[in-house]
Amino acid sequence: MTERITTDDVAKVAKLARLRLSEDELSRFTEQLAAVLEHAADLESLDLDGVEPMARPVPLANVLRPDVPGPALARDEVLAAAPLAEDGMFRVPPVLGESE
Amino acid sequence: MSADRRDARQIAEAVRSGESSAVEVLDEHLGRIDEREGELHAFNLVTADGARFRAAAIDAAVAAGETVGPLAGVPVAIKDNLCTRGVATTCSSRILEGWVPPYDATVVTRLAAAGAVMVGKTNMDEFAMGSSTENSAFGPTRNPHDPSRVPGGSSGGSAAAVAAGFAPISLGSDTGGSIRQPAALCGVVGVKPTYGTVSRLGLVAFGSSLDQVGPFATNVADAALVCEVIGGHDDGDSTSLPQPFPSVIEHLDDGIDGMRVGLVTEMMGEGIAPDVATRIRAAADALAAAGAIVEEVSIPAVTFGLSAYYLVAPAEASSNLSRYDGVRYGLRVDAPTTGEMMELTRTAGFGDEVKRRIMLGTYALSAGYYDAFYGTALKVRTLIREDFDRAYERYDVLLSPTSPTTAFAFGDKTADPMSMYLNDVCTIATNLAGHPAMSVPFGTGTDGLPIGAQVLAPTLGEIAMFKVAAALELAAAAGSSPA
Known about the structure:
The complex is a heterodimer of chains A (100) and B (483). With 100 residues, chain A is mainly alpha-helical. Chain A is 34% helix and 4% strand. Chain A has helices at residues 7-16, 23-40, 75-80; strands at 85-86, 89-90. A two-stranded antiparallel sheet of chain A has the order 1-2. Chain A starts with 6 loop residues before the first helix and ends in a 10-residue tail after the last strand. With 483 residues, chain B is an alpha/beta fold. Chain B has a domain at 8-251: Amidase signature (AS) domain (Amidase signature (AS) enzymes, Alpha-Beta Complex). Chain B has 15 helices and 11 strands. The termini of chain B are close together.
């Protein structure tokens, strides 16, 4: 299917997924992910030419409902569940000026 | 389990008639929780005060002559990935510790409207990722039949709660077998309904095209009742089918004369413990004796189910779990910038199995690998459904083991994730196809622990599935199962 997954691949994926891994974790997770992907190599034996992909079991698409206002979640209750909120908004540390 | 325990229908009947009060029923169950919860850890949270309030309200309604629902006064345990307004919902993850949802899942609303009394939120593998409940951030649940063994997972707390008599019914969720496998390992009934028949609104998402909510119960008729209560269309779930849940209750006593049952060859061979295979062959014989036509059937594509599932489910999970970023819910680890805050929060908040699946899914969806992994898996999904469809042209239902073994020991499979994943080999194809399936206890293994028989059915084939499940239950009770 593809080449064996490397520690570089896993480091890149961890960064994309916003996870920080120690050196030990990086090598352990690489081994474990490689084992799963090697098992999945059995799919290479299948002839999939012309087979339609199936993303979901129910053939519903563009489900619409009447545009009628209904009860919504209480803002205060939603914000109360956040780690930090202020003036009716979620509060986060600075976003701009990050070195990425 | 013990004969003095009443099932959900008996409790509701007694409460509705005034023979028992809902408060007495609740106290009886809280008593059992007091006795064994310390040992078993089925719950993340026992909601005794809220339950007393609800039970008293049911009793007041009965006393006032008001109509009460079909689950009046019935204690129910709810998996901790179903949102409960005002009651902490953790998914057994540090990242959601302390989060209190501002709304109820639709299934929770419907149970409450039917008169059920929630006694607690049950333990699970973190974000429903696992087959043993060992991945809970709050410690594992133990199997009530043998506390040195796992209860299965990921809905292990819900299965154990019913097996231990903490509640006669409970709810779980099933993404790759997470209701059926713990039901089998704990000796109770567990149902994974057709995708779209039960609302997912308020079920914390894992694999959105695979997840379904379903019940655990001590018997098939209770499970049927819960399905009809929680099932049916919900405007709040865009994947909800526009119809009521199939009328399973009225068909439970139909019998199975002339029904066609296929015993799945690929789920009876390599990897299936001999004592499990023996019991499932006995189940097939029992169905034949009850009038069904039973034959072996080959469904070749199901052997590829595990590979397809462990690409599709992590892909969906990696997307769904991106919302846990320290902004809107639960845990936040402070840092000078938002980017660092998110990374530190997710690193501290997620356990290893969740991290593995997020990374696997991110990889399967990433540029250069998308077609090879995720795209391939979606095509295999089609092959699996087509192979099932061919089988269902000739058979009303299929039969297999639910789990390849009885309950295993703690630590047996945690070091090697692949060995844990292989435990899902009989249940996974159902979720990929969107079909219903259920596990019914059918005797015990050589170790004396429960074995579950799995009944599989096509889309909306719940009536046939429940009929065959009822026949298996009857046969097991009649002693064709030397338990």
